[in-house]
Write a structure and sequence with these properties.
The complex is a heterodimer of chains A (124) and B (348). By secondary structure, chain A is mainly alpha-helical. Chain A contains three helices and no strands. The longest helix of chain A is centred in the first third of the chain and has 29 residues. Chain A is flat, with a radius of gyration of 25 Å. By secondary structure, chain B is mainly α. Chain B has one domain. Chain B is 66% helix and 0% strand. Chain B has twelve helices and no strands. The radius of gyration of chain B is 21 Å and the shape is globular. The chains are: A mainly alpha (124), B mainly alpha (348). Chains A and B meet through helix 1, helix 2 and helix 3 of A and helix 2, helix 3, helix 4, helix 5 and helix 6 of B.
Chain lengths: 124, 348
């Protein structure tokens, strides 16, 4: 049984939470202008890199392993997404459902073992 | 609560709306107060473990310390660096805090005290905690500075790595409860251990899962041994380096609200949520939300304890623990628990 009406409180919660956090961000900016705390200058607004001016563009390069982790996450999160409906209906599907999921998991474990052997999980 | 407002003479729709808004404020405001007090408690516990006193000047026993800190950051100047992408820079703390609050919509505080009784509560919490990554990544990227960017990359990789094993752990809990509705998960734990103990932790298959969930929740919230996203010695202050004033404080509030949420999830998923620890009549005299609060405080103490005693992991150790230990183990336990349940409960 789907109770869609139960999602309306969550939506109202989101609106209130957004309003509250926007208030927290923008109200101090206004207050700082009123109290005179708001007093920016070029040095204050430069980025902080331990006292030195920035050597290079921070958005130049980053390690490809972050990309690998993200791809692996997508695969395994999808796997978890397949497990959720199986988990709530295991009493209905019985042994055939269980064995089918074990076959699916086995295939994924082969992929996982391949990624492991290839060193995709290494951070040296 | 709707009935109360109907009795005041409102139409049903208005009464429902007012009751819902009151319910939301009843969750959000105590949560923010709780976060303020829990930051104070964290500092106190940490200090006591180091044989010194924590904050003890502002107010009696230093109880007002967090409020003094809050007022201080509120009156500070909000610095938006010239290089930053201004819009995203200001949106990031808003996302972090909104997401940290929203996850509380499906937590059952007592039987009958839940804001949204949806039938996929656990999936909702998983989804919301995934959204938490965005606030961190956006803040790190929008700062347009080297250390926040590295910190954001680390934080994203760390959070998603441990989310995989958390997903499998939740599958094990759902297998036992037979539903992902938060109420039914709590009710499935009533008298679970030998007909007396309320809680999944008692089970010999579920106890290792609980330990894995506790450690994963430390990593998911970037606490104590896994706080690599704000490793001061290498990354200055992490993704919050360029932030100041209340937008800096919002990251803190969001982080501690997430820590409280993870403590609550530990209590709800494995320690019987609002149920008393033992299924004995007179223990039910104490209302459910008190039991839940006690359990949350216990887990928060464990979090503080770990923070005070354990040295920080290295990043490669962290990733190895996530991918090579927790992922295979949690997958193994999905197979074990489902197989055990097939033989004992669903035997066809």
């Amino acid at each position: 049984m789907v109770e869609l009406s139960q999602y309306l409180p969550i939506f109202i919660f989101m609106v209130i939470a957004l309003g509250l956090s926007a208030l927290f961000v923008f109200l101090p900016m206004g207050v700082a202008r009123l109290t005179g705390a708001h007093n920016p200058d070029a040095e204050k607004l430069s980025e902080y890199e331990c006292g030195f001016p920035a050597f290079e563009d921070p958005r130049s390069q980053f390690d490809v392993r972050f990309y690998l982790v993200a791809i692996l996450f997508i695969i395994f999160d999808l796997e978890a997404a397949f497990l959720f409906p199986w988990a709530v209906s295991l009493d209905l599907t019985g042994w055939p459902g269980w064995i089918t999921m074990m076959v699916f998991l086995f295939e994924l474990i082969i992929g996982f073992a391949y990624a492991w052997k290839k060193g995709a999980l290494e951070w040296e | 609560m709707t009935d109360f407002f109907v009795n005041l003479g409102m139409s049903y729709e208005w009464a429902w709306f007012v009751a819902t808004v009151c319910g939301i404020l009843l969750i959000a405001l105590p949560l923010m107060l709780g976060v303020a007090m829990i930051i104070y408690a964290d500092r106190k516990i940490w200090a006591a473990m180091a044989l010194r006193r924590g904050p003890n000047v502002v107010g009696p026993f230093g109880l007002l310390q967090s409020f003094a800190d809050g007022l201080k950051v509120f009156l500070q100047e909000t610095i938006v660096p010239t290089a930053a992408n201004k819009g995203l820079f200001l949106i990031a703390p808003i996302i972090t805090f909104t997401v940290a609050l929203m996850a509380w919509a499906v937590i059952p505080f007592n039987s009958g005290a839940i804001l949204a009784d949806i039938n996929i509560g656990l999936l909702y919490i998983l989804a919301i905690s995934s959204l938490g990554v965005y606030g961190v990544v956006i803040s790190g990227w929008a700062s347009n500075s080297k250390y926040p960017f590295f910190s954001a990359m680390r934080a994203a990789a760390q959070m998603i790595s441990y989310e995989v094993s958390i997903g499998f752990i939740l599958v094990c809990v759902i297998l036992y409860a037979g539903s992902s509705n938060m109420y039914q998960i709590v009710e499935a734990q009533r008298g679970f251990g030998l007909g007396i103990v309320n809680g999944f932790f008692f089970n010999i298959l579920l106890f290792p899962i609980f330990v894995m969930f506790l450690i994963s929740s430390l990593a998911e919230t970037a606490r104590a041994p896994f706080d690599l996203t704000e490793a001061e010695s290498e990354l200055v202050a992490g993704y919050q380096t360029e932030y100041s004033s209340m937008s800096f404080a919002l990251f803190w509030l969001g982080e501690y609200a997430n820590v409280l949420l993870m403590c609550t999830l530990n209590a709800v998923l494995f320690f019987g949520g609002y149920l008393p620890p033992l299924d004995i009549g007179f223990l039910y005299v104490i209302p459910g939300f008190v039991w839940l609060l006690l359990k949350i405080l216990f887990f928060f103490f464990v979090f503080s304890w770990v923070k005070a005693t354990v040295p920080r992991f290295r990043y490669d150790q962290l990733m190895r623990l996530g991918w090579k230990v927790f992922l295979p183990l949690s997958l193994l336990f999905v197979v074990l628990t489902s197989g055990w349940l097939m033989f004992t409960r669903f035997a066809a």
